[in-house]
Specification:
Elements: H1 2-5, H2 9-13, H3 24-30, H4 40-56, H5 59-67, H6 71-74, H7 86-92, H8 102-109, H9 112-118, H10 121-129, H11 133-136, H12 148-154, H13 164-180, H14 183-191, H15 195-198, H16 210-216, H17 226-233, H18 236-242, H19 245-252, H20 257-260, H21 272-278, H22 288-295, H23 298-304, H24 307-314, H25 319-323, H26 334-340, H27 350-366, H28 369-377, H29 381-384, H30 396-408
Amino acid sequence: MARRDNVRVAALKSYLRADGSLTPLGEDRLTSGRKAKITDAMLQTWKALGPAGIEAAGGLDGVAKRDNVRAAALKNYLRADGRLTLLGEDRLARGGKATITDAMLRTWKILGQAGIEAAGGLDGVARRDNVPAAVLRNYLRADGSLSQLGENRLNPGGKATITDAMLRTWKALGQAGIEAAGGLDGVAKRDNVPAGALKNYLRADGRLTPRGEDRLNPGGKATITEAMLRTWKTLGQAEIEAAGGLNGVAKRDNVPAGALKNYLRADGSLTQRGEDRLNPDGKATITDAMLRTWKALGQAEIAAAGGLNGVAKRDNVPVMALKNYLHADGSLTQFGEDRLAPGGKAKITDAMLRTWKALGQAGIKTAGGLDGVARRDKVSAVALRKYLRTDGSLTPLGENRLLRKAGAH
């Protein structure tokens, strides 16, 4: 069928099953304009179904079809066994949830594994203390120990700044030395630095990250030129492997490895950014009209065009620039949304940084990722990313900003 109708096989299979029925994505596309928004009342109804009720409705896809909601959205809230996910449970109880305090962290720290198991596990502790379970997991482990985020919160003021001397010491540890210290979190605790910041520089196998290597040797790094790009383009995968991989090529040509990887892949091909740099002429400027057109495409049309790279090629714009505005699922990035609706953005405050630091990875995911946090708090997504990572840790810029404030007091 794909050959007959001249469409991609993978794209067709996103919509059609071998038994002739449309997939949920196909059904959703045909009724995309009439899908209902998931409400708390729906969650309460679904919670009462139980596994038998869900099976009788035709599974989760059947429940979604019956209630006219997107199947993918429903699955964020409901499991096939009839239970709500933590996201669903937290949504139903969001009004009465308490904020996690330092006093709670101290109480949880003395529970121990046995105390947590007696309370019904981490979910039981969260229920008992009326806090979101997903947020609690950012601070407390099932074995009774606090996560590094929890430890850092209880002792925020005394964190040291990472120095070049520390990087040299960590580089000499090796994997065995790191494991003996209790892993990267153990090294961070021992040297009194934020674990999130340490992981920007050091890997668990004892090697420094390219960022760490570049920091120790900042002065002698060369600027990447178009001549380099042409040379790298002719290397091929075998020569890159012979040079020691992309890091080896970077070392050989004395350029930052992180910067090189923006232009060159391990298979020897240039990234779209590299191709665009070698052929910059003739690229169109991204306009607001383009953003509106892309926003209307949807995931299926983007896939049919060959993904984001295909859309960029079709509309003659640099793919890296396009990806600043458009996701592969068809939604605009927060940067794109901000451009179409500028104004009204709040200034990022230290209080926001502390709140974001307490979210953790699960809290960020629940909010819809970094773009969701930016939307919720009405700040620029681009500015937020200077301070917060998707894993819930603050960037060094964010950590240093809070540390400077603490030092000033």
